[in-house]
Amino acid sequence: MRLVINGEQREPLGATLNDIWEEEARELQTDSPSGFAIALNGRVVPKTRWRDTPVSDGDQINIIRAMAGG
Questions:
Q1: In CATH, which superfamily holds the domain spanning 3-65?
Q2: Residue environment code for 33-60, b if the CB has 16+ CB neighbours within 10 A, otherwise e
Q3: Could you tell me the pLDDT band of residue 70, with boundaries at 50, 70 and 90?
Q4: CA angle, residues 43, 21, 28, in degrees to nearest 5
Q5: Confidence label for 4 from pLDDT (cuts 50, 70 and 90)
Q6: Strands 36-40 and 43-45
Q7: Could you tell me if 40 and 59 are in contact, meaning their C-beta atoms sit under 8 angstroms apart?
């Protein structure tokens, strides 16, 4: 399965948004989703739905980190 994650084509191992988050969290060196949001094909998915939201070939996923400041 090929996905576009933050603008890059990838072939992740996971099948849900939570699986994708766990893979990306290792790269970001964080284990807490606090301050992060995930958009699937342009729609933000609540954290409570990450575990049961499947991903499909060709999906576009954006992982967004909230930052303070202006």
A1: Beta-grasp domain (3.10.20.30)
A2: eeebebebeeeebeeeebeebebeeebe
A3: low
A4: 115
A5: very high
A6: antiparallel
A7: yes
* pLDDT tier for residue 35 given thresholds of 50, 70 and 90: confident
What tokens does 60 get?
């576009």
Q: In the chain, where are the structural domains located?
A: 3-65
Q: Rounded distance, CA 10 to CA 2, Å?
A: 6
| DSSP characters over 11-68 | --S-SBHHHHHHHHHHHHT----TTEEEEETTEEE-GGGSTT-B--TT-EEEEEE---
Give kind and range of the element (H or E) at residue 7: none
Task: Give every CB contact of residue 31 below 8 A, 6+ residues apart in sequence.
Answer: 25
CA distance 52 to 50: 6
